[in-house]
Design a protein that fits this description.
A two-stranded antiparallel ribbon has the order 1-2. A hairpin with a 4-residue loop joins strand 1 and strand 2. The longest helix is centred in the C-terminal third of the chain and has 56 residues. The protein is mostly helical and about 260 residues long.
């Protein structure tokens, strides 16, 4: 039992590192409001789930992807949501792949598990993108357009993830035979139904994380909007003052000489 727990911890650490590094193999694509990416991080998230099952693979996926967001100023605010959505991807793929009918996984069942994990993630990611764009003050048309752009890149990432992770799963499954990890890879998960402590905890976590993310983003956006409004009001006051000065100067017949000397 101790060896099993140790192997689980090692597996989470190794796969989290792969998920983290995979995110750096990327192409960033600005969509006008947000930034989306084509990368190999999802491939490692799926691989973690396929190899080690729902909980271990989900934790590795969430931790690796969440750490990447925490270290990137562009994504740092969304790190909690990334942890949840990437956890859901690895957890779904792992759970489905572990419910196979025999010890030997078929290619078809593994592909289905990988696709299901990607679909869950795409839904969560698209929802986050749409809500974020609305909170940032965009109209519905702009929000749908931005979400569609991100959905396109997410679909490309999904194809890459499935194509990369499934062959790697079978290759590593064979290579790790005879090691302590092989039992983790081949053990079959028992179904405990949809409403169990794990799913309830994940649902509660999703609600809390989404609420925190939304409140934080809304507060930040409100502050930025207020600052922009204050700047615009100040500029309007300056423009009005300059206009009055010009009118007064014209009535008094005063002209102002422009100072063209350097340093003054």
């Amino acid at each position: 039992m101790k060896n099993k727990k140790l192997n689980q911890i090692i597996a989470v650490g190794l796969m989290a590192a792969l998920c983290f590094v995979g995110n750096y193999l990327q192409i960033k694509i600005p969509n006008g409001v947000l930034v989306t990416r084509i990368h190999f991080g999802n491939s490692m998230c799926l691989l973690a789930g396929l190899l080690f099952g729902g909980m271990t693979g989900g934790l590795a996926s969430g931790i690796g992807a969440g750490l990447y967001d925490l270290l990137d100023p562009v994504y740092i605010v969304s790190a909690p949501y990334t942890f949840f959505s990437k956890f859901a991807m690895g957890f779904t793929a792992g759970k489905l792949n572990k419910h196979r009918s025999s010890e030997k996984s078929s290619v078809a069942s593994t592909i289905i598990a990988a696709i299901a994990g990607q679909i869950v993630y795409i839904i969560l990611y698209s929802l986050k993108t749409f809500i974020t764009l609305i909170i940032l003050g965009n109209d519905m048309k702009t929000a749908w357009a931005g979400t569609a752009t991100n959905l396109l890149t997410s679909s490309v990432n999904a194809v890459i993830a499935v194509v990369v992770s499934v062959p790697l799963y079978f290759a590593l499954r064979k290579a790790l035979k005879g090691t302590g990890f092989y039992q983790m890879i081949t053990e079959k998960s028992e179904s405990k139904g949809y409403f169990n402590p794990v799913t309830v905890a994940l649902t509660a976590f999703a609600v809390v994380v989404t609420a925190i993310f939304t409140i934080n983003l809304a507060a930040t956006t409100k502050i930025e909007a207020q600052e922009e409004e204050e700047r615009a009001e100040l500029q309007a006051q300056l423009d009005e003052a300059n206009r009055k000065i010009d009118i007064l100067a014209e009535k008094l017949g005063v002209t102002f000489e422009e100072n063209t000397q350097d340093g003054e």
